[in-house]
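Lab channel / #folding
Pinned by the channel admin:
"Please post every new chain as: sequence first, then the structure tokens as a reply. Keep commentary short and put observations after the output so the thread stays searchable."

First post following the new format, from NK:
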Amino acid sequence: MELQVANPSNIEKVGDGEGDPPLLTLMSISLRTKLNVKDNKQEVVAATARIYENVSLEDATSPENLPSHTLTVVRPPQGVFPPGFEMAVKRHGGNIKLEKSERSLLNVFLSE
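Reply from TO:
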């Protein structure tokens, strides 16, 4: 669920004992970039997200012990993946997607 409030003064604090705080979905994102010397700009070559669902703000469990899932999308920095890389990804069995360009990498990452 996503909510938007037009004016922050419309938000009221729930008093103590008037209900539990909502469960949250948290996401941590990590990006790896490489300098494109030709265009003199940074380009994304890998994006990873770790998603934690139904997290209580009152729960003191460390992140390592919370259930989560990950998504990683990578593209070859030089236009071609190194020999054996695609087979290693298949053997790994994780949620890793291979893309050919920065645009497709970002599209897949944002659509998942």
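NK: The two ends are 16 Å apart (CA to CA).
TO: also worth noting, Strands lie at 24-36, 41-55, 69-74, 96-98.
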